[in-house]
Amino acid sequence: MNIEVLIIFLFSYVIGSIPFGLILTKIFLKKDIREMGSGNIGATNVLRTGKKLLAASTLLFDVAKGYLTIYLTQKIYPDLILLSGLICLIGHIFPVWLKFKGGKGVATYLGVVLALSFNLALVFSVSWLIVFSLTKYSSLSSILGSMNVFLFSFFSDKILSDFIFFIFFIIVVFTHRENILRLMNKTETKIKF
Fold first, then answer.
1. 109, part of any domain
2. 84 inside domain
3. How many C-beta atoms lie closer than 10 Å to residue 190's C-beta?
């Protein structure tokens, strides 16, 4: 492993692993978000506290860390931006500080995609909003949104490597595996604003 890859690996992982949902709820609610709702540290679970601004802030910060990672990598090692995005996402899902039990990675994924391609971020956002407006399932919206990003990248020769978006899609499916089972059993929780 050369020094460039090591640097990208370390700083992408550290940025990705910052648990903003946990930090914000500890600061403003004096509670551990892991002991509430689904136990997840992401914006969807923070929303279950009833604090919409806190949930929006968690979403914004998690998107920002994905975007920032790609932005910084582009400045120093542009050939490693795809690796950087992948490691950032892994950092969010498996943060060492939380015994490798992090969030599902969707907001961070969106930040990475936004930094890589505005068009693909738009594909995800529009897909997510349409599915969510019809079903009220955040999990299903995230899975189908990431699938559409991969499909859009696959059928377009003007977009970055579609392989990385396939990997991202598989990761999103993996982190939502329990949600998929609940969707199949019709026990998945709908999100209400």
1. yes
2. yes
3. 9
